[in-house]
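User: structure tokens for this one?
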Amino acid sequence: MNSRPWWVVGAQFTGLGWYVGVAIVAPTLGGVWLDGKTGAAPLFVLLGLFLGLAVASYGSYRMVITYLTGQNDFDEI
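Assistant:
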């Protein structure tokens, strides 16, 4: 597979975890804020959650495929 040191692989997957967490939490909190301003609860919370899940899924897919194929971030997948 890949001949990267264990700590590089660990750092990549730690970054993946942070990416997923921030991609889901940030738009969800934005939705909570917008719901508080507009009174349209739970509309914006749900929109933010689904947007965050979509971004996290796509980004995770790209990061894992990049890891598995051993390509750089700048190469075409």
